[in-house]
Design brief:
This protein is of the alpha+beta class and 310 residues long. It is 22% helix and 35% strand. Strands 3-4-5-8-9-10-11-14 form an eight-stranded antiparallel sheet, with helices on one face. The chain has a two-stranded antiparallel sheet with strand order 1-2. The two termini are 15 Å apart.
Amino acid sequence: MASEKVDGFAFEQRHGKARVRLGRVWRSLSGGRHNFVEWTVGINLLSDCLAAYVRDDNSAIVATDSMKNTVYAKAKECTQQISMEEFAILLAKHFTSFYEQVTTAIITIVEKPWERVYVDDQPHDHGFKLGSEAHTTEVIVEKSGALRVTSGIRGLALLKTTQSGFEKFVRDKYTALPDTKERMVATEVTASWKYPFESLSGIPLQPSYFTERYLDVKKVLVETFFGPSRGGVYSPSVQNTLYQMATTVLNRFPDISSIQLKMPNIHFLPVNISSKDNPAIVKFDNDVYLPTSEPHGSIEATLSRMRAKM
């Protein structure tokens, strides 16, 4: 965000509309099948409206209520189903082209994970249930046509009951944690990946590109975490598993320039209960655990191609 000099100070500003909630149904003309999305949209505009701050002149301000209304109007105009990345690009293009004073538009969208219901092993025409992890995106479009697209996943909860360990770490006078080659490992993955497109002209033309890539990346992350269905894969640390997941994504998808993963280590603690009269009320044997949510380990990293712009 560029700064302006005001009264001897450096001044930066933006304004927008947060948490615009949108539901959109697309009804098939050839049959009874409906498609549905629920999005929470955020808008931030970088614009030449300095006078509103320093001179009580609102003539250059785009009202945030107008931004909200634009979301619904543009959704109505999308007569064919559209990915949320495409919708974010559409909104950003509108704000930077329709308003002369707007230099950059930043659009964020979080998709609520509604999933089609299956009845008698058949997809229901218009029935949906709420899933777990959420699809996210951030799109930045400048008036020049420069573009940055980031997609991601939030709340991808993963757990495996074995094939994990942690040993040979730093030991000092504060260390109480024992080495182990056998433990449960659980995390809630937050992932974000950047696409290499630098302008609006570089966006792939296929209509389902972003949705398919999101599903592809999620599948790779999950499969790399767990390993083969028979036997799985051993994890010597959350750090190592995170790195394997990130490298697999970049090796599999050349159209992704970088990926960031945040993977808290959510602990399941062994339960041992004893008393003076009974030393083994519950004796842990890799079977009974106390689930916890906090405190938890915090592990995150970003992996980028050397040519990627971060």
